[in-house]
Predict the 3D structure of the following.
Amino acid sequence: MKNPNVLVTLFFTAVTTVWVGAQGRTALKDDPEYIKSAALRIDKHVAALYRSKELPVPDVVDDPTFLRRSFLVAAGRIPNLEEARAFLEIDDESKREALISYLMKSDGYRSHMTNWLFDNMRVQEEMNRGSASPYVQFIYEAAQNNMPWDELARSLVASKGSMWEKGEGAVGYFIRDKGMELDNLSNTMRIFTGTRMECAQCHDDPFGEYERMDFYHLAAFVSNQHEINRGPWNKVWREVRDAKKERDDFGELVRWLGDNIHYATLGGGGRGRIELPGDYQYRDGDPGEMIGGKTPFGKRIRSSDRKDSGSGRMEFAEWLASEENPRFNATIVNRMWERVMGRAIWEPVDEYVEPKDTIAPNLVVDLVRLMQDLDYDLRAFQNVLLLTKTFQFEANSQAFDAGMPQAFNGRQLERMTAEQVWDSMVTLVRGDVESLPKRKFSDTIYYKNRPVLQGEMTMDQLSKEVLAIKSPAEYREYVENLLYRFKQGGGGKKKSNDSMMGMMSSGGPRGPVKGIARASELPSPAPDGHFLRQFGQSDRLLLDSATNEANMAQVLSVMNGHVEKMVVSNDKAAIYQALEAGSSDRDKVRYLYYAILGRPPGDEEMKMLMRDVIDGSRDSYRNLASALLATHEFLFIQ
Amino acid sequence: MNSEWNKSDELGRRQFLINAARSYLGVSVAPMLGASLASPAMAQAATGRRKPAEHVIFLNMAGGMSHLDTFDLKPGRDVQGPVEGIATSADYQISQYLPKTAEVANEMCVINSMTSTQGAHEQGQYTLHSSYNPRGTIVHPSVGAWVVRLKGRKNETLPGFVSVGGNPKNATSGFMGAQYAGVPLGRPEDGLKDSQRAHTVSEDDFDKRLAIADALNKQFHEKYNVPQVKAYESLYDEAVKLMKSADLKAFDINEEAGSTRSSYGQNRFGQGCLLARRLVETGVRFVEVTLGGWDTHYDNFTAVEARCAVLDQGYAALLKDLKARGMLENTLVVIATEFGRSPNIVSEHNNGRDHHPACFSCVLAGGGVAGGIKYGKSDKNGNRPDEDPVRMQDLNATIAHAMGIDHSQVLYSPSGRPFRMGGAEEELGKPVTSIFG
């Protein structure tokens, strides 16, 4: 265990690298002075709000609470022993700021944002019966590269072509919802503009702002989603079915191409007009009537009802992610506020409120300006919020009363998300979580779970060739040939140079990690019954499906399951470094507290533990570790 | 260590207090957990001479089960597509995809006049489970939580509500508190994971750990007097009780004969149905088993056929098994879904069907429901109910009726708002009483 004085560098190098690196750059998002001044500006708005509403201003939290809260909010996990010591055992005025810099630069931030994007973009490993790997990769890399929010929105909504084409993974956003164009559109509006339109898909919504006609005008932009050149495949597949040869080598490969290549395509760019459905029931239109595109708010964009535009999705994307779309801007600001402060300024986040009707109109307007000044850089924006005094306010110890302005009533005590609990567990076991294995991507062809034609052909190339086939005869010949090559070229067998191929960026194994890794690197979603699912991870089928409610399975897992097996009874678990770090029993107890709760024990606690629990034996420390993990404090973010 | 432990006054006293609290808790909580809120007089009035059902097995067909391709056939109409009907043990036909179900139709009441206005999955599932539309300010308890709350537990040591697979939100107890929430099980064959003390911990250490945690929790509880924390507090007590339960083996389907297991189908849903039977047999009030994958926008007929194969085997085996054990009379088995699918077949989507909330099907069996009957009717294309429409609120009121529970009984949330199992006052469900034998 390093000396705390050495550990100071852990956080402070992070600060200096950012600052030095920022010299000479002009973008505001890279200017630490701007970020700091923005944080101050926000605090002024909040202070004004507390004054005008005559609300009691919460106290600022102590160091341990700040440490743990910051880690969980910014990096999605608790601090390990080394990090806790580094922060708690130095006395420096600027250490909170240094900690935030450290966290925002950490891989933990990336991983934690990945979970958030996976939830919102409903990322699953498979689509229909085919792999969704390029879509997973697109979203994963969007988090990794900190893709600006407006760019992400545009990339998803304007996407087209084959998902396997290099850089086109975004099209998976539509393919994952194949046949459900309207639901996909409702989700898009909900995520990006905080507007609920799913009721208006079928009827005028008596509680909503929009009518069925409004929804169809919007749907016009994204309508007519179809696959690329499915014709020859359809004919060949029909022959296979008629001959009942679906389970032949040939039939299986045809089906696989249908599921993996054809299914993964989106032709055209959006028709720009749409027919009203057969059950259209209002006077302002007739069933089957063709209507053009029209946006319901923001800048007015229209498309013709007479001819196909062919670029409807592009037009829709430009409108959606525009600086002039008030809902797009306010919604992401509110979502980020919720992420950092625990509660959104207005709730629910997917029911838009005009800034002037929120509890904090000036704050919202200024936050929107800030988001735009930062070029929709979510990391920089969250960095600003994390540097505010507002973020440091103490949690409210009471349940919130209905009718109180929840966003400014002190932070609400919240149970960790499933991912935060899991990633914290992983931290307890491994300590140095940054070095754990990550998900892998490759464009190797996987047929029946085996890599084939490695070094000869990629999924991208295969997709291009298959989609270019013009006739059923040509298709049949191609499949015969491909089958032959799969068999010759190692289909179903592992080639001896696998490991070498694995080193190449485009080759090698792909997919999520099994076992001990951060939640973002495990299958999305984790399998049924996994610890993550027990703690309420989203099934990523529908939006907003994650929950942090308590249930019996969690408690059993803490007492008898993963927590016991992975951590408590595992002598190699990182938390037990606490026992080496401390020379006296009291030190050992203190470090165990650091590693699990991120705080030192209170005087009373120490007294009781020294008297009744700790006898110097390994068992007594194990009992303490187990008990600390079973405390409710462990599961909650204060 | 042991002797020292015994000497330690503070923790020793705490241990004593905890034990006392546990036994006390059993008493103090009993009026809520154990006994029924529904008075016997009320049960009698609700069910007439019939003995109320004791259990519910709720089979949730998540994604929107196509009514036209399962229980509401429209032979000869364009909307039917390639699906044909087959004869059943009742005097109506059902889909060719459900041959085993056809054999037990004499136990079933098919309702083909279900109707809702919620055309999105999340909202549809929410209303199906809670009788309410989703609101930003409250989480409404799921029907399983209502049943446990209003009917009370039957087995004091096992949870009242268990949920196998599916979206965790369907198992919520909302404002009622965690002790009424469904215990979520991932894979049926795993049973209730971690319900036994790990081999790495002695009984003595196990108790010590609980006592230490309890002592350490004190400060946190004093500081944060909020429901989320209290939920965990009550669950630890429940969990310890459960671990000591003699009935824990109810969760272990490996105790069943291989032939029984395979009769239900070697898949999660089938084994979930078998687990449900074991659980209700041991006194669990409400078991939900989810079968997903019904969202057949794309290639409807292939997908529905595959889903039906799973449903068919599990469901038919469940009814037969319950019947053979004399349990069908006191167990209501429900097949429900959030909406049906469009009569219109979308050729561009490889013959898919879209969401169709205006008209769909559900099936009730057992629990006093007359078998071999139908209730309600849809119009000629399955577009809308033609006779006796049944809303989600009505369905939940009917479940309440079967159990001898008053679906209109008001319970108040901690913030003082009134809620009912049958939905809000202005749209309160009406039980379909005529289907009870």
The CA atoms of residues 160 and 238 of chain B lie 11 Å apart. Chain B touches chain A through 87 residues (CB under 8 Å).
